[in-house]
Amino acid sequence: MTLPIYEIRSLKHFYGGKTVLEVEHLIVQPAAIIGLIGPNGSGKSTLLRLLGLIERPGQGHILYNGQLVEPFSDEARFHITLLPQEPFLMKRSVFKNVSYGLKLRGNSGDIADRVNEALSLVGLSSKDFAQRPWYALSGGEAQRVALAARLALKPKVLLLDEPTASVDAGSAQLIKEATLRARRELGTTLIVASHDWQWLYEICDEILHLFKGRIFGSGRETIIFGPWQRLGTKKWGKILSDTQQLLVPPPPDPEAAAVFDILSVSQDRPTAAGKDVVLSGTVSRLSLERKTGRLFATILVGDFPFNVGLALQQGEEHTIFPGKTIFIRYRLDQIKWI
Amino acid sequence: MNFLLEGFFQAFNLLLSGNAETYSAIWATVKVSSYSIVNSLLIGIPLGFCLGYFDFKGKKPIRTIVDTLMALPTVFIGLIVYAFLTHRGPLGNFGLLFTLPGIAIGQTILALPIVIGLSATAVESMDKKLRIAILSMGANRRQLFLTSLWESRHGILAGSIAAYGRVMTEVGISMMVGGNIKWHTRTITTAIALETNKGQFGMGVALGLVLLAIAFCVNLSVSFLRRR
Predict the structure, then answer these.
(1) How many CA atoms lie within 13 A of A241 on its CB side?
(2) For residue B133, what is the nearest residue in chain A, using CA coordinates?
(3) Which value does ipTM take for this structure?
(4) Which of B17, B98, B163, B173 would bridge B179 by S-S if both were Cys, CB 3.0 to 4.6 A apart?
(5) Which of residues 93-152 of B touch A (CB under 8 A)?
(6) pTM > 0.90
(7) Are A88 and B127 within 8 A, CB to CB?
(8) Could you tell me the end-to-end alpha-carbon distance of chain B, in angstroms, rounded to an integer?
């Protein structure tokens, strides 16, 4: 059995006496891609900082390759690297920023080659950018330089906190490609927090939903976070980007998260009776769950991914494939709140 | 106003002709201010960095004391240092009264709180994201400390310049501890005070211009360093 690259045991973390993260047990396998989904303040960045050994957990333990680790641990500090949400470059040239980590590791011979290689991975020409000072870069370029500085280290674990949140579409695409290449070529374990659900559902082996500092489910459920708004006198929900209404029963609080139980999927619009809600969406991912032999489909409804497990037969019956428009049905009285 | 104009002409004349008395005061100033600034930077930067970087019990009161000492009156420092260095004082045996090293001691005391206080401010105002960035690259404690120090260099440099400016332009310590002895402990500022009293505006203005020129050179080299 492969030793997990990370194991978290009874972890609790506090800021100002308030519990901000609570993870009872979590295992991450080597070379996995794990996605973290949750609203702002749900604990994604905190979890990444703890896994990145930037902060020491208030309680509990983090094991890396079976060894207990904490900030400055020699067993892990050269293997794990975190790319924070906002790029932060040191007051030095691009070359010196990218080579900083290599110098910390005592590399001396092939620094220039590794810097050039890392810069080209993120689509920056070494000739044009290597000698640029830190202040002469756009936001997207700075984020790509920051990523290049991490990729140059050929890390075993790359933690990404909203890597594409504050960059233009072109930079976002380059960042996505570069991180996946690191996983493909180096077997790097990726843990990514992002609001780009579609991308996460596309690339991740496992998705963890975080809400109010706790992990809910493991990506097989459909959890949609608030805020919810009143849509008329009795109805609550969200107006989706394609103008459909995602209806829910009155939430316990407008910020609560709703767990949806999808009753059926079909290629023809079913008739909605009583408390049924029918929405149309597009299949964005289809995968086979080896353990159960079931199909697992992610259907994008507006911008929200709905996860549905299907028997193989159902998949064939409805000829489900990525890109196809299908209908999902759920019941209002079966929605659970967390 | 003619006397001021004449003063300017006389100033250029003194400087260009290499007047020995003028250059003696310039040399004394450069020498004594260099001693004192080097001392205060060597002691003050590590202390200021620690004060800004670490959280410890009693940090706030220490910070308040340092900030208060930044406004120490030079005549008061002069008085205290004089009392220590006079032959009746505890350091009287060293014979430092009315010497340039004696003035340097007083000026170090003057510059030290400025270097400590402004270095601490520079470190405190460092972006919190810097620590995450350094740690995420795999730094150990020593590397974290040294990189943080290097990253706060611009603020520390600005503090050092402020301290140098204060040291170069002070009169009280140089006058009381140095005694304004011609060819020996007469500095630019004490010379200006004396020559003005004597009605010799030319030398006063000449020395004032030199002070300005030194300040300009220092700032020029700092702005060059800031770009690096």
Answers:
(1) 7
(2) A88
(3) 0.79
(4) B98
(5) 127, 129-141, 143, 147, 151
(6) no
(7) yes
(8) 45
